[in-house]
Structure formats: structure tokens, C-alpha cells
Design a protein that fits this description.
The structure holds 3 protein chains of 3 kinds.
Chain A (H helix, E strand, L loop, with lengths): L1 H25 L3 H27 L2 H32 L4
Helix pairs in contact in A: 1-2, 2-3
Chain B lengths: L1 H24 L3 H23 L9 H33 L1
Helix pairs in contact in B: 1-2, 2-3
Chain C lengths: L4 H22 L3 H21 L3 H23 L14 H27 L6 H7 L9 H9 L1 H20 L12 H24 L7 H17 L10 H8 L1 H15 L12 H25 L6 H5 L6
Helix pairs in contact in C: 1-2, 2-3, 3-9, 6-7, 7-11, 7-12, 8-9, 9-12, 11-12
Classes of the chains: A mainly alpha, B mainly alpha, C mainly alpha.
Chain lengths: ~90, ~90, ~325
């Protein structure tokens, strides 16, 4: 039962990752692409973490995966801030 | 199991060939360093594919140790090559 | 042969690997090539996980994608030359090279198929697994690296030291980065602390789980890289005199253990009975420090400031 639930979460995360990748390819400009990458991909990773934690079954493993998700969110947020401020300084529009 | 080994072994050989061709053909030093790294990755892939024993059995640890050594040696050789390249470019600019 | 979903995954991974490698090397923009190479390294780490090699997956993600990528990105700002020119070779040489590569491919294919489908006679893996209990650790890769083939690891540390000596001899370090803003500074503080903790854990866990000295050393090198990116000019590197000792610490630990063994009437690097686990941990700790500072110096790109002053004992060189 938990395996099935975990698989559903992972399938949902695939949708978010696909949305993020399509946004990276199709959206115009640096800032819009940053939106797609950070928001969609991080939600996708969160769902993936929940799914993997359910399938794994171990509480310690789930907590470690949660820590991975938090680290990725922090790193991607700061990286997005740096990229956006540099793009603005370089004079890119949008 | 054999099919997995064949798939990854052939990929390793092809990666080696792609890297070797680019290393010989491109003029830029950085491109050549990238190409040699990809060749190395191809060799590692072939080695680990030989070590694979299927989903049930523990894989052969000796090629894994060889590849781990190889990864560290590859990064240190890349670092030395990049330092040499930096000196060469500085000398060219003088 | 039955085709399962795993083979579908394998084929997908293989196609992605080849595609990434080809587009990394065939583009004219070198920045694009370097970023695609980092993606290639991460995908390769996934492939190691698929092939049941978790130690390799850790090392590839930390070293192959992380450190190599950081080094290459830094090298991009060393010079601004365009990267798309190809060497002009006469057609006869091209034909000869093509024939040579076909010969190489054929011999590799022959060797590979023999290795994979050959007779299931005595293989080294059987020997390794058979002696695993006496090796002092329970992770087979660590046992092979630091017990059965310890000599190879000693020589690998020597290669690392040789590359570091080359980098140190080639000139001063790259120009440092500017002072960070609030966000990057905070991130550097937290991440560096976390990296040191996780490196210590990986070193300890390498005895019974995937991990070990190389992965831990790579994480410490990543901490040095983070400090450098945060604008610090000394990057947590110790003073030059101490740094020299730390760079040689891994090899020194190996050699001391080896000679200790010869004093006890054993062969060089033959661990005494029952002491293998402890000796492996000590050697791994020293090796972790060596690897960390070697790779950190590689990121600096040359001798750090203050290197010359400590070498000639006060007299100007």
C-alpha cells in the first residue's frame, strides 16, 4: 500500500520536473527561466523525496532525504538570487 | 545481466571514441581536456559494467576500486592540465 | 535473453550519456561545453548507482561532477580565446587515424566480450569476498582499496602529490573572488560546517557502508572551494609549513605503516593480526586530509600567498 502511494508521489513529481524543463526551454529571458527551474523543480524534488521515503520505509532514511531536499532548496534559492542579480547588472531585460 | 553489461560496455567504448576524436581534432586546450575526461569516463563505464553481477548478487569490488582510484587521478591530472594551460595562455599573451 | 524494464532504463541512460558527451564536445561555445560536462558527470553518477556501485556514485558526484566542474568553470575565465577551431590534418593522416581507431575498437570489443562471457572459473572477486572478514572492514571496496590493493592506493596518493607539486610550481594562485553579499556569506558559513560534519561521517562509515577516505576528502575540498567562493583568501588552509606536512600525510601514514610491518617481521604493508581495522582508519584519516588539501590547492590554481616566505627560512628568493 505504501509502495503504491510512494509510486504515485514519484509520478506526480515527474510532472513537475517536466514542467520545469519545458519552462527552461521555452520561456524567454533569464528571470522567467529561473522561476521555472527553482519553483517547479524544487516542488518536484519534494514530492520525489516523499515518495522515496514512503517506499524506503525507514524513518531515518526519510529524515535524511528531507535534509537533502532542504539543502537543495537553500542552494537553489541562493544560486537563483545570484544569477538574477548578475543578469540584472549585465543589463538583460525581463 | 549480460544485456546490461553489453549496453554499458558499448556505451563506454563509444564514449572513449568520441572523446579521443575530439581530443585529436579540436584546437582549443580546454576542449581537449574535456575530451580526455570523457574518454576516461568511457573507460570507467566499461570497467564497472564488467564488474556488474545482476540485481541479486554483490558486484565485483576490484574494478570498483580501480575506477575510484581512476576518478581521483583523473581530477588531479585535469587540475594539473588546467594549471599548465593557464601558464601557456599567459606566456602566449606576452 | 529477456528484456525487462531495467534494460529500458539502461538503454535510456546510455543514449543520454552519449548525447550529452557529443553535445558537450561538438559545440563551439566552451562555456556550454563545460556545463554540459557537469551534467554528464551527474548522469554518470546515476549510472554508477544503477550498476550497484554506491561508493563510485558518491565519488563521481563529489569529484567528477562537482570538483572537476568547478575547476573547469574557473579555467573558463583564465583566457577568452574562441574554442571552435579544428586542427588541419592531411587526409592520409586522417585515414590512418580512422583505421587505427577501428582496430582499437575491434580489439576492445573482443576483450570486452571475453571478459563478460568468459568461463566462470576462479576470479579475483571470489578471493576478495573470501578474505573479507579478516580484512578489518566490511565494505568490500574499502577492503580492496586499503587492504588487498593498498599498494595501488599508496601510488595513487603519490600521483596526487606529484600533480599538486606541479600545480604549486607553476605560479601563484588565481586572483581571489570579491567579498560576498549577505546571502552567499550565510550559505558559505552553514554549508562549510555541514560539509566538515558529513566528511567526518563518510570517513567513519566507509568501513561498513559506502564511503571512505576519497569521498570524505572530496567533501572537505568542496568546503575549501566554498570558502574561496565566499571571498576568503586563506580558505581555511593552514599555514604553509603545516600545509606541506598535511599534503604528504597520506603517503607518510602508508609508509609508516608499511615499515612498521617490516619491523614486526611481516611483509611491507601487511597489517598485523587483528589491527587491520584500526590501521585502516588511521591511514584513511591521513589520506582524507591529503586529498582535501591537494584538491583545494588545485582549485586555487597555484601556490597560495605566503608560500615562498616559509620555504626559504626568511631569506629572500
Amino acid at each position: 500500500m505504501t509502495d503504491l502511494l510512494g509510486a504515485l508521489f514519484i509520478l506526480a513529481s515527474l510532472g513537475f520536473f517536466a514542467a520545469g524543463s519545458i519552462g527552461l526551454l521555452r520561456l524567454p529571458g533569464v528571470h522567467a527561466r529561473l522561476h521555472a527551474l527553482t519553483k517547479a523543480d524544487n516542488v518536484g524534488l519534494g514530492l520525489l523525496v516523499v515518495g522515496a521515503g514512503l517506499i524506503g520505509g525507514d524513518l531515518l532514511l526519510a529524515l535524511k532525504l528531507l535534509l537533502v531536499w532542504l539543502l537543495v532548496m537553500v542552494a537553489s534559492a541562493i544560486a537563483a538570487n545570484l544569477i538574477a542579480s548578475h543578469a540584472m547588472k549585465d543589463g538583460e531585460e525581463s | 545481466m549480460i544485456l546490461t553489461q553489453l549496453i554499458f560496455g558499448i556505451t563506454g567504448g563509444l564514449l572513449f571514441a568520441i572523446g579521443l576524436r575530439s581530443a585529436l581534432v579540436r584546437e582549443s586546450l580546454l576542449a581537449r581536456i574535456l575530451a580526455v575526461n570523457i574518454s576516461g569516463a568511457g573507460v570507467f563505464l566499461a570497467l564497472v559494467a564488467i564488474a556488474y553481477r545482476g540485481l541479486e548478487e554483490t558486484p565485483d569490488p576490484i574494478p570498483h576500486a580501480l575506477v575510484l582510484t581512476g576518478i581521483v587521478v583523473a581530477v588531479s591530472a585535469t587540475a594539473l592540465a588546467l594549471a599548465l594551460r593557464r601558464r601557456l595562455e599567459e606566456a602566449d599573451d606576452e | 535473453m529477456e528484456i525487462t524494464l531495467w534494460h529500458l532504463l539502461d538503454a535510456l541512460l546510455a543514449i543520454l550519456l552519449l548525447g550529452l558527451a557529443w553535445s558537450a564536445l561538438s559545440g563551439s561555445d566552451l562555456r556550454r561545453g563545460v556545463v554540459l560536462f557537469m551534467a554528464f558527470g551527474l548522469l554518470l553518477s546515476l549510472v554508477w548507482a544503477r550498476l550497484r556501485a554506491p561508493d563510485l556514485a558518491l565519488a563521481e558526484a563529489a569529484i567528477g561532477a562537482g570538483l572537476s566542474g568547478a575547476l573547469l568553470l574557473l579555467a573558463l575565465r583564465d583566457s577568452e580565446k574562441p574554442g571552435n577551431r579544428t586542427v588541419q590534418t592531411p587526409p592520409l593522416l586522417q585515414l590512418a587515424t580512422l583505421l587505427l581507431m577501428l582496430l582499437l575498437a575491434a580489439s576492445f570489443a573482443l576483450a570486452y566480450v571475453t571478459a563478460v562471457t568468459g568461463n566462470n572459473g576462479d576470479r579475483l572477486a571470489g578471493l576478495a569476498f573470501g578474505n573479507l572478514e579478516q580484512s578489518g572492514v566490511s565494505n568490500p571496496v574499502t577492503a580492496v582499496l586499503l587492504n588487498f590493493r593498498a599498494y595501488d592506493t599508496l601510488l595513487e596518493l603519490a600521483v596526487l602529490l606529484a600533480a599538486t607539486l606541479g600545480i604549486l610550481a607553476l605560479g601563484a594562485e588565481r586572483r581571489p573572488f570579491r567579498k560576498p553579499g549577505l546571502l552567499l556569506g550565510g550559505l558559505v558559513t552553514w554549508i562549510t560546517t555541514l560539509l566538515v560534519m558529513v566528511a567526518g561521517y563518510l570517513l567513519w562509515a566507509g568501513a561498513h557502508a559506502p564511503g571512505g577516505a576519497f569521498q570524505a576528502g572530496a567533501l572537505l575540498a568542496a568546503a575549501i572551494v566554498m570558502l574561496r567562493l565566499g571571498g576568503m583568501t586563506s580558505e581555511g588552509l593552514p599555514v604553509s609549513r603545516l600545509l606541506r606536512w598535511l599534503l604528504a600525510a597520506g603517503i607518510a601514514a602508508f609508509m609508516l605503516t608499511g615499515y612498521l610491518a617490516t619491523f614486526l617481521d611481516l611483509a611491507f604493508l601487511q597489517y598485523p593480526e587483528g589491527r587491520a581495522g584500526l590501521l585502516i582508519l588511521l591511514i584513511e584519516s591521513a589520506a582524507m586530509l591529503s586529498i582535501a588539501f591537494s584538491l583545494g590547492l588545485a582549485y586555487l590554481g597555484g601556490s597560495p600567498s605566503g608560500w615562498e616566505k616559509s620555504s626559504s627560512k626568511g631569506s629572500p628568493s
